[in-house]
Amino acid sequence: MSxxxxxxxxxxxxxxxxxxxxIGRYGGRAVARVLLYPITLYFLVRRGPExxxxxxxxxxxxxxxxxxxxxxxHIHTFAATILDRVFLLSGQLRxxxxxxxxxxxxxxxLDAGRGVLLFGSHLGSFExxxxxxxxxxxxxxxxxxxxxxxxxxxxLLDALNPDIAATVIDAAQDGPAIVLAIQxxxxxxHMVALLVDRAGPGEAAQLAPFLGRxxxxxxxxxxxxAVLGAPVLxxxxxxxxxxxxxxxxxxxxxxxxxxxxxxxxxxxALIRGYATxxxxxxxxxxxxxxxxxxxxxxxxxxxxxxxTPAQLVAGxxxxxxxxxxxxxxxxx
Length: 332
Description:
It is built from twelve helices and nine strands.
């Protein structure tokens, strides 16, 4: 992710989130969904860089020239998942028809008393993970989130569900504190969720093939998994239209502790394997991709390499900072 994109101005911030929350709560989901059309049109017209990034990505994933209608559908899909966030975070889970795949693999770890790392992405809705509270009310989902980086979303979470807000692991802490918090959650048998597809400026990352060209993926989450020896499951909450989602879990790593000398090759293999699975699901649900910037742009400043000891400490904070959705909601 380029520094220039991170500096894109917010287009509403707290007010935009408050507005969509209010419409959803008081007007109902049906009324709010009607309003998504003018919202989509506004962003389609006003947000040129995001519109161009959308068209570039869609051309890759659809393997054809993307039309303006494709871009509008892409924006509308994102807006729909943001609206649904209001209901998912407020515990109104029964509004949604969620098909779950791979739940047996997750149950196997949890029944053995093992905590797990759930590695997600900005593909689909990560909040749909909340339906796990119906399947495993005995297990807590802890999300790594930089509260200070997105205060509007933090306020929304506090207002909608203070109980969920209390389970957030704040990525604004120093690196060792974050790793310790994750380790304590894993040791307690919890699920710890992170988004692992965005590498920020200066963050240690590795390049892997993705949709026809190499893209940068952050190293820190995989380093945490290797150091803690925690099992990793990939999680994809794919929006299928209306009130339908597919929540897919894929076992990815069984949680072996990797000796320091072997971490470089092992992390490279894991990141490349993750990019392959991410590409698979992106092709299956192309309009669910919510990285509205040039995902394949990467610097040559040395950040896209194995992490140094200093980056090992700072890395988890950078990884957590990618949890909140940038792009059209924060910046539009």
